[in-house]
């Protein structure tokens, strides 16, 4: 759909200047993504770490002509003569007002979903059921924020018959704007839990805030077995139609009986007194709770019961993220398991374009037929081709009857099996490849063919969670406090470039590495942030200067050697970082050496003190708080002496992750964030998100009779017969051998299984006698179910050691929601 700039300004109650006749089809908020410049409105968003207004000159040069800006940004409009500007007080609020007007122009039913968890899975499953009867539009992925909701509404196609939008909040006062955007006719409340609780005084306050979404709804769906939600809904909305699901007698959709079958759960249900049976692929409580809501809504919307019975067995877990994997021949695989529609395709292509550009790779799209688009396949292919061209795709491979016909068989295949039989894998070289397929096309077979390594034990790194944790720690800092992110030791075992690249986009101020080689690797990969080398070797100084790496100076020997290297290259004002030993008794100048240090630094103009810092020895334990305070006082005194002696200021930094949480008054000018990025909290704050998941799979199940032993040294003997799962991860992968013989546990299908026998070099064994397990089932070594901290405690060590011990032969998979 197209709207004029003047119309958008009217909807947002804002003034407009310049070219008001520009016609807008798309909205952009990220200058790094590709777009059709003359049809796109750029929304300049000002955040804590960035300001979209600074990218206006660059975007104007690229052909962008329409901008939504904030009045206080003081843009010089005169230098953009043919551009049009909508000027408002807050660009996100302006975009929300535009979305609210677009929503009012759509006379179809809107379904709004909120709750602490399960919003996206309920939305996706409901859409998949309803698509058997309706043309359904929905918000992509987890687009449920103050920005994501209006973008979702803008992207709704005109010919849909029903829209499903999810809404998420993290603090009081946020829901009203989302409710105005969505104005739902039907509301779904999934559940209420601890997520985002840190900004609310109580669960009740958060519940009341979430319920504001349903002001316009005439019908609300919820779990009737949750008395807290039911009572709150009845109190707030006594006049509305409230429909519930659950086991209790008063529920409109009642779960009468649940049995476990070989293919999942068999559910006996009753709807308005009519009994029926559903076969559901999952048995866990959370999945069944989500399903009950989905079925309740579908039946109330008059989806034929037989459709529900037919479609529920086909429901699959939703991949709400893009997985990056190293491919053959220097290829990068981007595996997008999300629903295949044009909106999701565009999001995937944006990511493909971004990652291809970073690695200097050509861009390839392997795409399946897109069903239920409402278009003839020739028209749909024209849209796909146009989108691929806009996003810089150089090779398009189509799979499916419709694409095969539309593409006249050129670079097209009727089935995935046809592609696998005919493809020459060696023809894929130096490419970023987006795999975008509907589930029935089983693109995981293509992924397996093009993937570089076959070792199924992987360390999964959730980049969204890491970015969230960075912002969590940032929220604890004063506005002026800078942030140094530590990426030493291969980013604590998680991968150097990928993490550093994310942190660069998160606008951290510095990166810290242990050795020069780590910094050089980052520079070669395109990282431009200032990088401090914490343990520089004297022989590395010439290379450090070449790659603009900044050393920690911790002794007079290091100072003299670095000064010599700088003088040989004829450089001046080269930044250095002075380490003070305040009680760690590791590296650093002791207080008595500071006068001599000042004298030497004052005698040269080749070096410039960029920062002075120290390390806390016990900031994570209350036992050492007295000593920590002594270190803070010593550091403060040392900095004062240095400043007075040098006659100039510098950046001061002392706090690590634990210090940020426990000693807010000692932030000085900068803090250093390390293990906290990965979800490890000194105060056990549940607000942090799990970043790393180490997982493998069951390669074989063995039936072991009573009295037999398991593994080397004949350990793990028991008096009864057992079922043993063999798992391909061992101490060569970083799974510590001290977790053998019942010390460690793994998680399989939601149940803990003790490690049996000695952990071997390449595999270990777990007792699954009491668990329903099949060969090929996923095994969590640590992650959401078994935390890194728990594993560390069992080994009497720290989470740092657990992460950094993971072998490089374990494949790192980076996921982005």
Count of helices? 26
How many domains make up the coordinates?
A: 5
Please bin the fraction of helical residues: 25-40%
CATH superfamily of the largest domain: Alanine racemase
Low-confidence stretches: none
How far apart, in Å, are the first and last alpha carbons?
27 Å
Identify the CATH class of the largest domain: Alpha Beta
Major sheet details = 15 strands, mixed
How much is the average pLDDT? Answer: 90
Structural class assignment: alpha/beta
Query: Strand order within the widest sheet?
Result: 21-20-19-22-18-17-39-23-32-38-35-36-37-34-33
- What is the number of strand segments? 39
Provide the CATH topology of the largest domain: TIM Barrel
CATH architecture descriptor of the largest domain: Alpha-Beta Barrel
The backbone outline, from C-alpha atoms, is globular
Radius of gyration: 29 Å
Descriptive notes:
One of its GO terms (biological process) is D-alanine biosynthetic process. Belongs to the alanine racemase family. This protein is α/β, with parallel strands linked by helices and 817 residues long. The chain has 5 domains: 3-91, Udp-n-acetylmuramoylalanyl-d-glutamate--2,6- Diaminopimelate Ligase, Chain: A, domain 1 (3-Layer(aba) Sandwich); 106-314, UDP-N-acetylmuramoyl-L-alanine:D-glutamate ligase, CATH 3.40.1190; 332-452, Protein-Tyrosine Phosphatase, Chain A; 461-678, TIM Barrel, CATH 3.20.20.10; 692-816, Lyase, Ornithine Decarboxylase, Chain A, domain 1 (Beta Barrel). 31% of the residues lie in helices and 23% in strands. It contains 26 helices and 39 strands. The chain has a 15-stranded mixed sheet with strand order 21-20-19-22-18-17-39-23-32-38-35-36-37-34-33, with helices on both faces. Strands 9-10-8-11-12-13-14-15-16 form a 9-stranded mixed sheet, sandwiched between helices. A hairpin with a 7-residue loop joins β36 and β37 (764-767). α3 runs parallel beside α5, α3 runs parallel beside α6 (175-182) and α7 packs across α8. The protein is globular.
